[in-house]
Hints:
Blueprint: E1 2-7, E2 14-19, E3 25-28, E4 32-33
Antiparallel strand pairs: 1-2, 2-3, 3-4
Amino acid sequence: MRRYRHESRDSDFTAEIEVDADGWVTHYPGLFERLAVPAR
């Protein structure tokens, strides 16, 4: 799991976005959270 910090240039908005090993977003605070990982 990796985490990236997003900062808006136009406002004081920031977010810590978590992604899985493939780069898919798993958690975006206040907007999105993946509940299950599909079987491969």
